[in-house]
Amino acid sequence: MPAPQPPVPESPETAATRAKGRPRSAAADRAILDATREALAELGWGGLTMGHVATRAGVAKTTLYRRWPSKNELVVDAVASLFDELVMPDLGSLQADIEAVVAQFAALLARPESQAALLALFAEGTRDRQLRRRIREAIVDPQKRLVRQGRTAAQARGELAPDLDEATAREEVDIIFDTIAGTVEHRVLVSGEPVTPEWTRRFTVLLLGPFPVPSAG
Amino acid sequence: MPAPQPPVPESPETAATRAKGRPRSAAADRAILDATREALAELGWGGLTMGHVATRAGVAKTTLYRRWPSKNELVVDAVASLFDELVMPDLGSLQADIEAVVAQFAALLARPESQAALLALFAEGTRDRQLRRRIREAIVDPQKRLVRQGRTAAQARGELAPDLDEATAREEVDIIFDTIAGTVEHRVLVSGEPVTPEWTRRFTVLLLGPFPVPSAG
DNA sequence: TCGCTTTCGCTACGAGTCGTAGCGTAACTG
DNA sequence: CAGTTACGCTACGACTCGTAGCGAAAGCGA
C-alpha cells in the first residue's frame, strides 16, 4: 500500500469518491515501484537516481515527483512489500519456529534489492524523524506480528509463561524483535557472512538459553 | 590510524623513510578528520560533501582527494577512532560486564556523528567489498576484543566453561558480537528508542538465559 | 646556497543530478 | 461540451562530483 502524495493535499472533502479530472494511472504506480526495485538491485542506493527510475518506468520525472516527494519515500514503499512474505509457521516448538523465521529473514536480506535499500533507509531515518516513522509503520512494526504469533503459540504449548500485564508483554516483544532482527541484519549486512542452518541453530539456542554454563544440563 | 593514499602507490622502496620532497601536513590530516566528524554531526551522511569538508578544514579540495579517494574511505577513518573508547570492565559478574558494555555502546551510538555515519557506511559496504573489508578491519573486528575479554574473565570466574576448541570459540565470539552489536544498533538507530538501564538489564537477562519459562526460578 | 621533488592552495572545467516550472495534450466527469 | 486533473516533454539554475593545470611553499641532498 503506497503512500502517494495526496492529489489535493488540503481538501477535507466528504472523504468519499474524489473522482474529478483525469485519474492517476495505477499502471504507472506499479511500473515505478517495479523499476525502483530493479534499479536498486542493479545500482544500489547511491546509484539510484530519480531520473533513472522515471526513464526505466517509462514515465516522466514530473509524474514521479507528483507521487513521491523524494527518493527516501519512494524506496520505503518499493521495499516494504518485500517483507510481507515473512510468515510465522507453527512447527511445534519455539526453537523450530524461531529458526524458520530467522532463515526466512536471512534469505530476504540476501536479496540485492533489500540489501541495497534497507540500511540506507535506516541511515536516512536517523536524521529524518518523519522518514523513521514511515519506516516503522511500513516495515518494522508490521513484522512484530511474527514475534507475537510465536509467543502466543509457545504459550499455548506451555513453553512460555502467559503474559502478566500488557505493558511488560509489549516491551518483551520489542526486545525480542530488536534482538532477532538486529542480529540477523548485523550478521548478513555488516559481517557479511552467510546465515547457515548451523549458525541459525546456535543463535536460537543462545536466545532461548540456557547459556552454555558448566552447571546447566 | 588513517589509511591515506600512498604518495607513490607503486614503489616498494626500502620501506624505510621515504622522505623526499615536501612532506604531507599532519595538521591537515587532523583538520580534515575533525571537520568530517563535525560536518557529519551537523549535516548527516547525505549532506556531507567533499567540498564542504575541505572548506571547513581550511584545505583545498585537491588535498583532500590526494589522501582519501572517496567519501566512504574518509568517513571510515573519521569514525573508527570513536570506537576506541569502548572498554570491557571487570565488575565481578558476566551480567554486570555485559550491561556496562551495552551502556557504553548505546551512549556512543547516541552521538550525532556516529549515528549519521555508521548505518550509511554499512549500507555502502553491502555494495563495495573493499569498503566492507575496511569497515571490518577498522571498526568491527577491533571491537570483538571486548567479547573475548569478557569471556576470558567469565571463564576465570567459573561462570563459563573453558573453550573446547579454537574454531568453536571463534564462532561463539562472532555470534555474541553480532547479537549485542546488532541488537543495540537496531534499538537505537532503527526503533529509535532509548537504551535505559532497565532495558539493558532485560536484554542481558535474555542473552544470558534462562528464558523466562515457568519452571525457571 | 642551489636545484630537485612533492605538496600546497587556488581556479576552472565537463558531466551529472537535483527539484521545479511551463507547455500542450490526454483522460475522465457532470 | 466545459471543467478539471494527470500526463509526457523540455528547459532551467543550483549544486556536487572528480580532475587538471597553475604558481608558490616546504623539505631534501649536494
UniProtKB/TrEMBL annotation, chains A, B:
InterPro entries for this protein: Homeodomain-like_sf, HTH-type_TetR-like_transc_reg, HTH_TetR, Tet_transcr_reg_TetR-rel_C_sf, TetR_C
Domain of life: Bacteria
Region of interest (Disordered), ranges: 1-27
Biased composition (Pro residues): 1-10
Classification via SUPFAM superfamilies: Homeodomain-like, Tetracyclin repressor-like, C-terminal domain
Any one Pfam family match given in the protein's UniProt record, by short name: TetR_C_11
Residue stretches making up the HTH tetR-type domain: 26-86
Keywords: DNA-binding, Transcription, Transcription regulation
PROSITE patterns listed in its UniProt record: HTH_TETR_2
DNA-binding region: 49-68
Entry protein name: TetR/AcrR family transcriptional regulator
